[in-house]
């Protein structure tokens, strides 16, 4: 698809425009400067045409350490984009920084369309004339807040995209893998080494990543001795913090985006820092993953720092005691810095994704569960015992089962765990939570 990047100085409304054109709230929008840091992507379909939209951080003249990273992300977006939307603020008017950016874009030698933002009322209709000195032929006045002028811009983008698109192939739906963890656990470093490019900002400063950043890549999936190319979307998320350490509205937004990423992911990679150990925050994130019903694999990052200090079996035993609610999640010891076991981690995550999509025959399920009830009958409660009539699978990713019984009130947590363990032992579902609903069979 044709790639369209939105660029400009901070606070001109790039992220608001990105969200409006994408048709959903992806980028965090706030009055504070420097909210967008990594580049964000979203496919846009309009008038039977498709193009890839890219949101970028604001360009500044004298960047500090973080702004230097942001500028690097913008430059990467500029290099890969086919078309640039130069966003300027119609309310504030032309600034010296706008002039500098315009000169920079002119040297890139790519088509540039001028987009004058924040045209929220009729008094600002002629604001574009102040920027006509830049000399670009295509100019649009928009208000992302009030949906004004965005339809003509989308029409023009769709027409431009259709010129480069002979046909669109329907591809296999990608697996969404969310990389989650507390701040500075190495999530962005892991994303970069998997993508083979500087996809996310890596810094010692905690909380660098704010948005949930999607990266779609082709992955050589190794399974049973053969290699198959698969599409995966890696989601880099903001580090989840404890509530008392959330100091701003933006931190809260970032955490909400991370939790949303867990909910929409096929598999969550819970990345922990071996040099620090399992923290209260790690347990909180594990609980979020568990409650979301998302399949999970636990990555023990920075294991290269622990070599000779602790053996893997002891560490795993300790971790299982700390996170009993993720007992179904396999562990991979890795180093995002050196790349050790990173390929293994993603292949295992893809294994888990495929396993969670299994559909099991009703006959097989009933044979397994009836035998489980015979081998270990439920306890007698008030002179009656729980009785299983029939079972069936009702969902995948995660696998869900419906059991028809005489009285769901007689199900005890310990027996529910027993049934889940029997299903897992017989059917696999490694890394996926098995969800069971108990229903009373209606009397005839």
Highest-level CATH class of the largest domain: Alpha Beta
CATH architecture of the largest domain: 3-Layer(aba) Sandwich
Low-confidence stretches: 29-35, 165-170, 199-210
Overall average pLDDT: 82
Strand content: 15-25%
Number of strands: 17
CATH level-four homologous superfamily name of the largest domain: P-loop containing nucleotide triphosphate hydrolases
Q: Please work out how many helical segments DSSP would assign.
A: 11
**CATH domain topology of the largest domain:** Rossmann fold
Kindly report how far apart the N and C termini lie: 58 Å
Rg of Cα set: 26 Å
Shape: elongated
Quaternary structure type: single chain
Looking across the biggest beta sheet, what order are the strands in? Answer: 2-3-1-4-5-6
**How can the largest sheet be summarized?**
6 strands, mixed
The helix/strand series, from N terminus to C terminus, equals: EHEEHEHEEHEHEEHEHEHEHHEEEEHE
Q: Helix/strand/pairing class, anyone?
A: alpha/beta
């Amino acid at each position: 698809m044709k790639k369209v990047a939105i660029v400009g100085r901070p606070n001109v409304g790039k992220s608001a425009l990105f969200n409006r054109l994408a048709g959903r709230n992806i980028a965090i929008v706030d009055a504070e400067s420097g909210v967008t840091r990594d580049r964000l992507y979203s496919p846009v379909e309009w008038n039977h045409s498709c193009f890839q939209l890219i949101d970028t951080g604001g360009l500044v003249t004298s960047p500090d350490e973080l702004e230097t990273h942001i500028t690097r992300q913008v430059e990467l977006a500029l290099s890969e984009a086919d078309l640039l939307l130069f966003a300027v603020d119609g309310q504030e008017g032309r600034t010296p920084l706008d002039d500098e950016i315009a000169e920079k874009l002119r040297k890139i030698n790519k088509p540039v369309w001028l987009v004058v933002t924040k045209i929220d009322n009729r008094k600002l209709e002629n604001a574009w004339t102040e920027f006509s000195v830049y000399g670009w032929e295509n100019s649009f006045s928009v208000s992302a807040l009030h949906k004004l002028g965005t339809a003509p811009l989308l029409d023009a983008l769709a027409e431009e995209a259709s010129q480069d698109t002979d046909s669109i192939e329907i591809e296999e739906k990608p697996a969404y893998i969310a990389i989650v963890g507390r701040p500075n656990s190495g999530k962005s470093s892991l994303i970069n080494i998997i993508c083979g490019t500087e996809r996310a900002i890596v810094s010692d400063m905690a909380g660098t990543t704010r948005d949930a950043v999607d990266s779609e890549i082709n992955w050589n999936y190794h399974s049973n001795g053969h290699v198959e190319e698969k599409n995966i979307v890696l989601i880099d998320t903001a580090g989840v913090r404890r509530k008392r350490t959330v100091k701003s509205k933006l931190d809260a937004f970032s955490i909400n985006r991370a939790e949303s990423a867990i909910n929409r992911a096929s598999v969550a990679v819970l990345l922990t820092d071996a040099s620090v150990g399992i923290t209260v925050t790690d347990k909180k994130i594990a609980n979020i993953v568990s409650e979301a019903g998302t399949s999970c694999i636990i990555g023990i990052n920075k294991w290269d720092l622990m070599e000779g200090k602790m053996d893997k079996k002891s560490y795993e035993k300790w971790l299982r005691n700390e996170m009993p609610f993720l007992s179904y999640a396999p562990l991979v010891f890795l180093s995002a810095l050196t790349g050790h076991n990173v390929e293994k981690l993603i292949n295992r995550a893809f294994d888990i994704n495929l396993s969670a999509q299994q559909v099991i025959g009703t006959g097989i399920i009933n044979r397994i569960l009836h035998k489980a009830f015979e081998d270990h009958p439920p306890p007698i409660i008030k002179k009656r015992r729980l009785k299983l009539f029939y079972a069936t699978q009702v969902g995948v990713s995660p696998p869900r089962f419906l059991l028809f019984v005489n009285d769901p009130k007689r199900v005890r947590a310990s027996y529910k765990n027993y049934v889940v363990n029997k299903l897992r032992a017989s059917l696999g579902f490694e890394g996926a939570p098995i969800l069971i609903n108990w229903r009373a069979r209606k009397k005839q």
